[in-house]
Write a structure and sequence with these properties.
This protein is α+β, with helices and mostly antiparallel strands. The protein contains 14 helices and 32 strands. It comes from Alkalimonas cellulosilytica.
Length: about 575
């Protein structure tokens, strides 16, 4: 169903509530007489339901904590299959991309190589290594200290050194040609501790990825240290990188150690969130406000359920988000975010022949008659006897029923044994036909059409969110479809029977079942052609025959074919 904006919804709601208060008199309305007979009964029924709801005791009350509400159904596999927040970092994405050491902030180290070209008063074209003292030796100039100098400052420092000796008519060009590789130890709670090669400007993430990432069961994603000569140079929290893109540490040197510490306290978060994760805590206690910032909550989340262990024993708390923000969450807790607010309104759509808007925001207990009593129509054009509703829940039940029938068909007949060779050949052929039929039948999408009339009287019912109400136009035609030679639409002629229209469409096809002809009304009602008189807008649906010597199989297939015809107004051939 097409979505509408909140502003449009408010306007439509205002318009409809006004209509419900004063019915339109500009155009005739055929629905009023039908609804007036039942309004008093509906009011008494609704009052009884409200009283019963008030008297019904609440369940799942947490007397110790004072929280109450419906405890969500927990699937045991959810927590078992969850991964730590950040585990996706180490899937090879950093391993294949290395820094080249030529970024402007790179700090020069012993072993690096500098290309130097000087021309004018003197000519020099050399590749100069940075020695152990951090110098490059320039002929006729002498040593120049470059260790610790950034790549962006190198050219200025060398140029100044050359011009101290050759102040005039000299030009200098420098370039950092290569950098000294480093070997870094990666240890602690990683999957493959070891010594890994890289360049000084590589990120810690590059080396962690080479070590196949952090041990998801025991390693910490928030306590990672960079050590040099036994001293801590940097402490890193990968949550800062995941959430804000921050990961600051010193440039690596040969012999540095990256240490992943043991995992700290953690909690399991799932429910109405973007993705279920284990979240690691920096401290032994985390407050709900911080957790809500870490876990991206889905729209509409209203409550949080916390379950765990405390010194006093098992602990559970169910609260709205506002008090949950100040709630302390401890190591090992399980937090489930749920949307536990019931909407006071529903949105329904109107289609077909009528005047006015197409979408309406109604009270959740609004009925079909209450809506239609205030919808102006042109009685000359609109077919008010054939109003119907397309409902999502009905379509889902129709599809579930169809799939269950197909499953029983496969289970019963595709695995049956054969006593003779001839019977086996027949079963093989039937199995092929059944398999092809089942494959086509599974593609059928039920329309969810709900018949809301009886003997041309419109029944009243409570509307549901997402309902699509159809007020069809009057039709002058009859549609003939299914197993006929020329499916077509013909002008309705009073007195003509279904068989007359079938003859006009070329007659029955060779696969037709002449005993099973259905009449589908505009409102979705399905009748046998022998039991009903045709009227404009009807569809004549000729079902296919089931050709098999197995009477039980023929009965099952016929039942499924009927089921498909009613749910989707189509005829599938076996």
């Amino acid at each position: 169903m097409k979505r509408i904006s909140m502003r449009q919804g408010r306007l439509l709601a205002t318009a409809l509530f006004g209509l419900l208060c004063c019915a339109s008199t500009a155009l005739a309305n055929p629905f009023t007489d039908q609804s007036q007979q039942t309004q008093a009964q509906q009011a008494r029924a609704m009052q009884a339901q409200q009283q019963a709801a008030l008297q019904e005791p609440r369940s799942n009350v947490n007397w110790q904590q004072g929280g109450y509400g419906p405890i969500p159904t927990m699937e045991q596999g959810i927590v078992r299959d969850m991964r730590p927040f950040g585990a996706e970092l180490f899937s090879g994405g950093f391993r294949g991309t290395r820094a080249d050491g030529l970024n402007p902030d790179y700090r020069i180290l012993p072993g690096d190589q500098v290309t130097l070209r000087v021309w004018g008063a003197v000519d020099i074209d050399r590749i100069l290594p940075v020695d152990a003292q951090g110098n490059i030796f320039i002929p006729s100039i002498g040593p120049v200290q470059v260790q610790g100098v950034s790549h962006s400052q190198l050219d200025t420092i060398v140029r100044n050194a050359v011009r101290k000796v050759y102040p005039d008519n000299v030009y200098v060009y420098t370039n950092l040609q290569g950098v000294q590789p480093v070997a870094v130890f990666v240890t602690g709670f990683v999957n493959k501790p070891g010594r890994y090669a890289g360049v000084p400007s590589d990120s810690v993430l590059y080396f962690l990825d080479q070590a196949s990432g952090i041990d998801e069961e025991q390693g910490s994603y928030r306590r990672i240290r960079l050590l040099r000569n036994g001293e801590t140079l940097a402490e890193m929290d990968l949550y800062d990188f995941l959430l804000e893109g921050k990961l600051n540490h010193a440039q690596l040197q040969n012999g540095d150690t990256i240490l992943v510490e043991r995992r700290g306290p953690q909690i399991a978060v799932h429910g109405e969130v973007g993705r279920a994760y284990f979240y690691e805590l920096n401290d032994d206690v985390l407050y709900g406000k911080t957790l809500m910032q870490l876990a991206q909550l889905d729209a509409g989340v209203s409550h949080a359920l916390v379950r765990g262990q405390r010194a006093s024993g098992p602990y559970a708390n169910y609260q709205p988000l506002e008090p949950f923000a100040e709630l302390a969450i401890a190591n090992g807790d399980e937090v489930v975010f749920v949307a536990d607010r019931h909407a006071d309104t529903i949105v329904v759509q109107l289609e077909g022949s009528y005047y006015g808007p197409s979408f309406f925001i109604l009270p959740k207990n609004a009925t079909l008659h209450q809506l239609l009593d205030n919808i102006p129509v042109d009685q000359v054009i609109a077919e008010t006897r054939s109003i119907s509703i397309r409902r999502v829940s009905v379509a889902e039940r129709q599809r579930e029923s169809l799939l269950e029938s197909l499953r029983r068909l496969e289970t019963t007949y595709l695995g049956a044994s054969s006593a003779t060779v001839e019977e086996s050949a027949i079963r093989v052929r039937e199995a092929e036909l059944i398999s092809a039929f089942v494959a086509r039948a599974r593609e059928v999408e039920p329309n969810g059409r709900l018949v809301v009339s009886h003997r041309d009287q419109l029944l009243d019912l409570r509307l549901q969110d997402g309902d699509v109400i159809t007020i069809p136009e009057r039709s002058d035609s009859i549609l003939v479809s299914g197993e006929v030679y020329i499916p077509q639409a013909s002008i309705f002629v009073p007195g003509m029977s279904a068989w007359n229209y079938i003859e006009a469409a070329g007659g029955f096809s060779q696969h037709a079942d002449k005993r099973r002809i259905l009449i589908v009304r505009q409102n979705g009602e399905v009748r046998n052609a022998r039991d009903v008189e045709l009227r404009p807008g009807d569809e004549i649906l000729v079902l296919p025959a089931v050709t098999t010597k197995n009477l039980q199989l023929a009965s099952t297939l016929t039942q499924i074919i009927y089921q498909i015809a009613i749910a989707a107004k189509v005829a599938i051939d076996i």
